[in-house]
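Hi R.,

Here's the chain you asked about this morning:
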Amino acid sequence: MKNTRAVLLATLLTALVYVAGQVLAAIPNVELVTFLAFVAGFLLGPLLGAVVGGAGMAAHSLFNVMGMVAPPVWIAQWGAYALVGVAGALAGPWIAGMRRRGLAAVVSGVTGAALVLFYQAVVNAVSFVTFASGISVWVYVWGGIAFAALQMIWNAALFAALLVPTLHVLARYRRELAVAR
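And the predicted structure, written out as tokens:
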């Protein structure tokens, strides 16, 4: 029964990741996908967290209202967000267990920014290999990351403000699910 509940919850969270990505697609670099994938990893463990993050982003990129991305970039996005789900499984319990709320908020904010930096570095590197010619890889990758500065700031603020309370609310359900971690 626990596994059925976990798979059902993973399916619902994947749909939520997709919908959240679509709802905010018109606002450049403002998104909830990173937060939701991280929380899914915390709640469901690394395997299902990776499935939720990867499948949610894959669906968002494949059926994006702004248009589909190129297949190599799509694969990079899928893989990067699968790792965001794994990060939630690994770092989420540690953050939720921090006694000092202020420190937990700072660590959460840094985590949100670091996850976006990781995502942007991976996707920009793959985009460079796929599309760019005649330009330095570092100019291309760092230019993309500079463009994504808003996304990093957004996620730092979102994670700092909402991650710890969200993890505390979901901690009981995480224990009830107790999927293989």
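The helical segments are 2-23, 33-44, 46-62, 71-96, 101-131, 137-147, 149-177.

Let me know if you need anything else.
M.
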